[in-house]
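Notes from the pairing session

We agreed to fold both candidates in a single pass and log them together. This is the raw record for the first candidate, unedited. Please don't reformat it; downstream parsing expects exactly this layout.

Candidate A
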Amino acid sequence: MSNQPRIAITVLTVGLFIVTACNLPTGVPPLPQPSQPAEWTATTLPPSATLPAIASPQATGTLAGTPIPTFTAVVLSTPLPVVITASTGNLNIRRGPGVGYNPIGGLLKGETSTATARDDIGGWLFIALPGQPDKSGWVNTQTQYSTVVGDVMALSVLSVDAPKAAYFRNCTFHPMLVQPGGVVIPPQGSAPLNQVQFNPGDYIIKDGAVAGNPEVMEATLLEGYTVDIRTDATPSTTSCP
């Protein structure tokens, strides 16, 4: 059998392909080339390296699958009130923290009151007068008649103006005995020693030149005042120059 017809068919097919290729339109842009992938460098941890652990809160329950952290409540303690009691006798309540201030009331034996402030060393407490909650004064904690319960130094410090000096002046020619205290005031001829400072309060004046020291006057001494003693027990009345 002859091979000529097969050759003719092959030649014809190649010719048609060439003609078709020549008839394609010109100016068609080339297809875009794929971009080169970025280069990555792999880092390998050494076998001994370990990643740090991430702490997770303790959970006592779950909410929609999410752990609920546990919280600890802190309860702040409230200091107990500071209470003073006139346990074995009466206590003066004064205008300020000291015996140099005027008495303005009293804490009677068995009575108590709650302190709201203190002086700088804690020897005096600022309290409401019994039965008069709108009026306050100072009471001494360092006497045999007072009992205190509570932390005094936990109270805030309250400042008060200094007390005003008070005096007795002897205008007679007899020495005068002042009670309580037993202080003798020289006669007027000893001036200025015949004027002596005392704490505010109630006093009895007695003639120190007469037997038995008879009483010549009673007086209440207040801050900022001077009280003259003008009468002795003979009786004789004089005035200070």
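Candidate B (folded immediately after A)
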Amino acid sequence: MPLLNADKPQLWKQDIAASVDFFNRWFMEFAPAAYRETRIKATEEVLSALRLTDNLRSISPRDLQSHPAILPALRMSTSPPIARDRLVGLASCNKNLVLCMEEGKIPSRMPKKDLESQLASICAIIIRLLDPDIFPWLGSPKPPPKGERFRASTIVADRLCGAVADPIIRNAQERRQLEVIARFLEQRGYRHQSLSPSTDLHDIPPGTFTFHFNVAVGEKLRVNIPIDVLIQRLKPGPRRMPILIEAKSAGDFTNTNKRRKEEATKIHQLQAAYGKEMTLVLLLCGYFDCGYLGYEAAEGLDWVWEHRLEDLLRLGI
């Protein structure tokens, strides 16, 4: 396959500058909206937690067992807010219990006695650390005014969103990148097609693409590698190998260099399973410096910049 950008270091700096500007324009226009939408949802979740616990006056193991998803809101209602790992340490509870509760469920195989004991410990820690400045009604038997409840909920919602601000932006950016690729392909006669998880890579219909497909690798130990975009050309090659695309965006240079080994590991695993003809291309938008690009190029990876998506046409699309 022809190289797109990995063999053109003379263009890297100007492409980096263009990519940073591209990301920053998107961030200023769309990221605040994505954050606001998540904040509205978080506020509703906090209000629900208040209703379920009699405005935090009654936080019991039964409440947590019946409604485990309220735990994040409760963690952010304390002074100071409690991170997951900190709660595990303070309550001397099982980390898996906390992680499951954050996903809205209770571990099914946990012994009942242990579950009750650990939920009681979690409740005790949260009750002890509840923030009286956010919830001034806790010292009074009267129900809190509606405006006071809503104000407290927005404060906790801001804490929840602050703890997950980067994932909010990252998820919004990924959705946008996939929409951009879909439009690019559909304008050229491709169609989106859902695939069965058992679909063989060589059996993908020509002129189709799909999102979030797991590619199996490994002989003795089978491992699924998640791929963001999988494209089968309108005119497939002799081996009918699709093009795989990994969508990457970043709002700073630091995190990209921390995670650059992930893509290198993927391409090595894929080529070990399917041969050197396997093509994995990175779709980059944002802060990717020369150190990141040089590392990926040395590992055999190539990329296309979102601000110049037409480079994909050189892959036979």
